[in-house]
Structure formats: structure tokens, C-alpha cells
Design brief:
CATH class of the largest domain: Alpha Beta
Distance between the termini: 34 Å
Structural class: alpha/beta
Strand content: 25-35%
CATH architecture of the largest domain: 3-Layer(aba) Sandwich
Low-confidence stretches: none
Radius of gyration: 17 Å
CATH superfamily of the largest domain: P-loop containing nucleotide triphosphate hydrolases
Length: about 230
């Protein structure tokens, strides 16, 4: 479904990505692991058109995405949940969710709103509440729910567990796995490697802008280097 090949991205003289290549197959959860500054967020931003690479290719079902405006990439079915949630603080929960569907003109919006409320009942309870007054966990639910209102083919998640209590982290990851079971393909960036690999099918380890390791989730979980660097063992 998603192909990234020989991707290079620079911030001025700093090369953030150096020949990154990865694939995400239809129906998969693929985890992209790495420490701060490894290039994980840069990779997602480049896929979604927020950054333009100096070289390399990004394709969705074989269709080139490099140079395509980010709003057109959204229209092609890629939804990006950014690090830090980036909800609209002054809008209500319902208004935030409807912003996720702003490009749609089909009859399925109400059904997708019901789907979001089924996944995140707390959002339905707070549907008229101003989003900026929600807790951190509720804001993360809202950010994911807003992305799902696009009815995306591919969901990009950037650090969904950041700043959340452990019990909420488990809840969020259970929900992400449920979203995938419903048919949504997911590329997951996450520093909590243990949680990411517990729900992913495959994964990549990014180190200083290059892919250092790749394998199934089980292979990476059993890898001594991954266990030492990312699983605290």
C-alpha cells in the first residue's frame, strides 16, 4: 500500500533522513521505533506532504506522493495524527470531529461519527465540551477520532502514548488494535517499543536518519539489541 524508497530529508545542512526505505502493506500495523531525534516524526511529515524530501520516493498504491500538496494527500486517504495531538482547543468535541470530515461529501459521515463514539465512549459523553478543557487522554482520543472521520485508507500515528498514564496507554493501544481489526492500515511511530510491538505486525528501527533494523514484531521483540536499547533489558 505505502512505499517509501531512498528518502532523504534535510533541515538546512542537517540531514534528518538518509536513504530511508520502508513498506506498509494493506491491513498491517507497522511500527517505526527509535530514540528522540532519530527521524521518526520527519518520516511521517514527509509521507503526509508537510515536508518535501531532497530525494527519494513516497507512493500510495503505486501513485507518487512527493510534491503533492498535503491537503490533496489527505483527500487520497492518508490521515495524520501528529505528535502533541494538535486539536482545535476552542472548538467543541463534535466540531473537532467534524473538521476531520471536512473534505467528505458522502452519506457515511454519521456512521463514522457513531464508529468514533463506539471506540471512544468518553467523547460522546463530552460531545459538547470545549476540547481544550479535556484531559490529556481524552484529547488523544479526540485526535485519533478526528483522523478516523476522514475514513482513511492509511492512518499515521505519531507518539499516541506521549504524556499518558499507564492505564490510558493500554486503553489507547487496545483501541488502535481495534481500529486495525476494522480494516484501517496503520503506520505507528512510538517510543514505547514494548506497547508498539505488542500490537504491530512488523517494525522498523530508525537510528540517526537511517533504517538500522527491520523484521516482524516477534523478531524485533526477541532481538538483543532492541531489547537492550528500547525494551529496557
Amino acid at each position: 500500500m505505502l512505499g517509501v524508497d531512498a528518502l532523504e530529508v534535510a533541515y538546512g545542512e542537517i540531514r534528518a533522513l538518509r536513504g530511508v526505505a520502508l513498506e506498509v502493506g494493506r491491513g498491517e500495523i507497522v511500527a517505526l521505533l527509535g530514540n528522540n531525534g532519530a527521524g521518526k516524526t520527519t518520516t511521517l511529515k514527509t509521507i503526509s506532504g508537510l515536508l518535501r524530501p531532497t530525494r527519494g520516493a513516497v507512493t500510495l498504491d503505486g501513485e507518487p506522493l512527493v510534491g503533492v500538496p498535503s491537503h490533496d494527500i489527505v483527500q487520497k486517504g492518508i490521515a495524520h495524527v501528529p505528535e502533541g495531538r494538535r486539536i482545535f482547543n476552542r472548538l467543541t468535541v463534535r466540531e473537532n470531529l467534524m473538521m476531520g470530515a471536512y473534505l467528505r461529501r458522502d452519506a457515511g459521515i454519521a456512521d463514522d461519527l457513531d464508529r468514533v463514539f463506539a471506540l471512544f465512549p468518553r467523547l460522546e459523553e463530552r460531545v459538547a465540551q470545549v476540547a481544550g478543557t479535556l484531559s490529556g487522554g481524552e484529547q488523544q482520543m479526540l485526535a485519533i477520532g478526528r483522523a478516523l472521520m476522514l475514513s482513511p485508507r492509511l492512518l499515521l500515528l505519531d507518539e499516541p502514548s506521549m504524556g499518558l498514564a499507564p492505564v490510558l496507554v493500554e486503553q489507547i493501544f487496545d483501541t488502535i488494535a481495534g481500529i486495525n481489526r476494522q480494516g484501517t492500515t496503520i503506520l505507528l511511530v512510538e517510543q514505547n517499543a514494548a506497547m508498539a510491538l505488542s500490537i504491530a505486525h512488523r517494525g522498523y528501527v530508525l537510528e540517526t536518519g537511517t533504517i538500522a533494523l527491520t523484521g516482524t514484531a516477534a523478531e524485533l521483540s526477541d532481538n538483543a539489541e532492541v531489547r537492550r536499547a528500547y525494551l529496557g533489558e
